[in-house]
Amino acid sequence: MKFTQEQQDIINSSGNIKINAVAGSGKTTTVIEYAATRPAGSRILYLVFNKAVRIEAAKKFADKGLQQVKVETAHSLAFRHIVFKHNYKVRAQGYKTHEIAALLNLQGNGEKHAEYIVANHINKCIAYFCNSDQRKVQDLNYLDTVTDPKARAFVSTFYDYIIAQTRLLLSKMDKGEIEVTHDFYLKKFQLLNPELGYDYILFDEGQDASPAMLDLFFKQKAVKVIVGDTHQQIYSWRYAVNSLEKADFTTHHLSTSFRFGQDIAGLASEILELKSHLDENFKTSVSITGAGDSKEIKTRATLARTNLGLLLKAIEYVTENKRSRQIYFEGNISSYTYADDGASLYDVLNLYSNKRHLIKDELIRSMKDLAELEDYIEKTEDVQLSLMVEIIKEYENEVPEIINTIKKRHVGNNNKEEADMIFSTVHRCKGMEYDSVELVNDFISEKRLDKLKEDRQNFELSIPKLNEEINLLYVAVTRAKTDLFIPETLLPDTFNSESPHIHVVKVKNEDEELPKKNTFAGAEKNRNKKEKTYSVEQIRTTHEGAYKPWTQDEDDELAGMFSEGCPIKEIADHLGRTRGAIVARIKKLELENFY
């Protein structure tokens, strides 16, 4: 294989280095060749991001006959050193909010649902500490991670209590009184300051490194290599940091992408230039060159910033694309309908519909109504629950049928290649590539950056998050190998290419296309907050036909418009119904089978 000069420089290098590699630049191939050229008998550790990458990378090293290379994730490494030694039991899914409240016998002190809100913050505080490089919980200021005004006010009031209970829960794990979490045993591993005994340690995805693991990495005596892409940092919300900026190592670049051509490379570069809105002195460290020449279209993907944006697009796709039959969700469709804390879309729907006897999740069941849940969401900054509420408010009682429709079209993991369309959020498709990519219009845009700058105080507070929002758009664009379909509102003002591979999608009304809440950085939360509607009368102020029986004339109009390919929103507006009601009626009348 012929290597580029940049790749050859890395392969021939010595000492500690960091590699800033653009998307699709062959970093794994380069790292494998680097390992192959190390002195005979060298013990090499390759630290990767997740289990799937570990399995794939291990096979690639084995195929090259590099048996001396051990591929691990941070957690697989820590698991063997900590869990086995201490005979811990692992809580695979972590602790739910109501479980923490029960374990610690938390008291509400009179404020509504305070025990659950405190428990939620304890969970986050544990994650913050366990991923940090600090040795004590009290050495951190958890309040630094809280941005919502109501949440900050709550945490400030209960701060000492939250910290004390966080330490108590960690102590229970340490003593083996309760099951330990994945974050816990990784933290304990870091605190032991182990010497791993390798000659070379290669640290992949260095732009999203756990500070705890990074601390352990820097303390090793081995030659160290960090590989990553500064502009693909998208996990700071998990308390990850960019190790490329923290390591004082010799810098190498991989600036040529073999995934896509120069047109997409140029657009990706212009998207990164949006960071100049955040920092006037911003300058990209490397110019991206596109050397890909793929022309085939076998895989098609729709990528979104949020679960909400993705589900809305999937609903539109399965109801309007009559010829397509198979779809696939990266990470499994069920994971998009459940929050990490265990609550499901159906629980939120049953709360909304006042069907309390059907609510399974204890936290949701403790809420009197949706208004109470939204108050809880604001005080905990629970984005997942917030998105679920938005979906329920948009589609109401049609949600079960909509989700069932999507699930019926969903192919299994082993048949992914049979899908007509793959759906994914950017976070779930990290490291993947598709022949054709369509972007949902829920990413940051230059227009919105300009609007945010008008409110200077909130803008300055949001700069780190906005920087990551630009990264998300960059990552989404660079998943495409051949064709990219991008809403016109997401294009930088400087973009003027007429590439046959970049298809600009017209947007009638940007505000209609974008989810109204938590789309990015929370910076416009109050400005775009959707009016709460809890009664039929209020809902009918925007959808006059909501909850009214369907007439034969309406069914005929619906069938006619659907057969002519009218968009769901247009049909809903014409008939005065919600989009969810239109989707459900199409299914009930089995119109998809006729048109």
Automatic annotation (TrEMBL):
Catalyzed reactions per annotation: Couples ATP hydrolysis with the unwinding of duplex DNA by translocating in the 3'-5' direction; ATP + H2O = ADP + phosphate + H(+)
Pfam name, any one: UvrD-helicase
An annotated Gene Ontology molecular function: hydrolase activity
Amino acids binding ATP: 21-28
Matches recorded under PROSITE patterns: UVRD_HELICASE_ATP_BIND
InterPro entries: DNA_helicase_UvrD-like_C, DNA_helicase_UvrD/REP, P-loop_NTPase, UvrD-like_ATP-bd
Every UvrD-like helicase ATP-binding domain range: 1-285
Enzyme Commission number(s): 5.6.2.4
Keyword tags: ATP-binding, Helicase, Hydrolase, Isomerase, Nucleotide-binding
Biological process terms in GO annotation: double-strand break repair via homologous recombination; replication fork processing
Segments traversing the membrane: none
UniProt-listed Gene3D superfamilies: Homeodomain-like, P-loop containing nucleotide triphosphate hydrolases
Keyword Kinase: no
PANTHER family, sorted: F-BOX DNA HELICASE 1 (PTHR11070:SF30), UVRD / RECB / PCRA DNA HELICASE FAMILY MEMBER (PTHR11070)
Protein name per its UniProtKB record: DNA 3'-5' helicase
